[in-house]
Amino acid sequence: MNKKEFDYVVIGAGIAGCSLAHFLGKYSKSILLIDRNSQVAFGASGAAGAFLSPLLGKPNDFKDLITKSLIFSTNFYKNLGQELINNCGVCRIPKNQEDSDKFDSYKAYMDFEYSQMNDGYFFEIGSQVTPSLICEKLTKDIEKKLSYNVEKLEQKENSTWIINDEIYAKNIILTTGADVKHIKEEYFDIRGVWGQKIDVSTTTETKINYHKECSVSKASKIENTKLFKVSIGATHHKFNCDKNICNYCIETANINACSKCYNDSIINSDSLKLIALANDIIKLENVEVIDVKIGARAASNDYFPMLGALVDSKKSIEEYPHLLNGTHIKNSMLETINNLYVINGVGGRGFVLSPYLANELVEHIINNKEIEDNLTTHRLFKRWAKKQKNKVIGRK
What are the pLDDT digits (tens) for 357-367? Predict the structure, then answer.
């Protein structure tokens, strides 16, 4: 067997993995991008509405993250190719009177220019991108291994990583979203939130993006017809599966053809729901569903993404047993796994967050740029350690 060696192997070819491969490509030509699907952007990223929109609210760290990510990613997509981003603006519409009152209270804290539009607020920065086109452009010069399932991932004593006994890598970056089977750390808690996006044909031409309880895209003309294509998304489902027993749907390639959990009944019901929600925003005439995409978005319990090296809980606790008291934990006490990194937990804002996070991680790996503390996996370990203390107290 011929041994293949790379400086960097990125596992997961959604928007996070493709963005990461792109930024790594500025520093290295020894990169491999792996995905179990036959195309890039075929899982959760393919099912994303891929809308770029401001987060409204009063100042806080998460809003600050979304704001700087939105600015970075919007400029990034424009520089990648003006044809790849539809910067037509978005109208944000309150869902009800309570929501409208909240919007009014947020006016003093808007990070972007806006204007009143009927019952909503129009933001010029609002955009949408096409997942497949973006990810293909990002990785056009990157070596790929698609339709390839990583069954075995292990590290040798010299820190070299080996995939399926045939691919060798100095560094592994996991951008696998809700599928965290290769992360053997109890503290790393990810929730899979399933969602569905549909493309419909309609005789109605929407001129901008809209967001209320769902998002509706600006229309694009369907060639040789009088019809327009409009994207509508996305729904939210949390299945109560025990992923320690069965993680079938999360680990299945081409989940759009799988009917084990996300079956035809759910797909048809969600399509009708999305069309109804869209019509609550703008009346779409002569609607027909022409494409359906489903996928599991990966969300963390505190909504912040995870970025950087993984804390090695076993080594850390062996070195500092008091860590399980859950108090006085300093980052300097926490050992990390050599040459293993993650981008995860981007939730429903993957196309806003991923380019910004990917650039931050590459600058960290290559140039030792410090990662913000509220993005690292250290925060997850600390929260988990406190729970271990509570478990011990509860058993007394």
Answer: 999 999 999 99
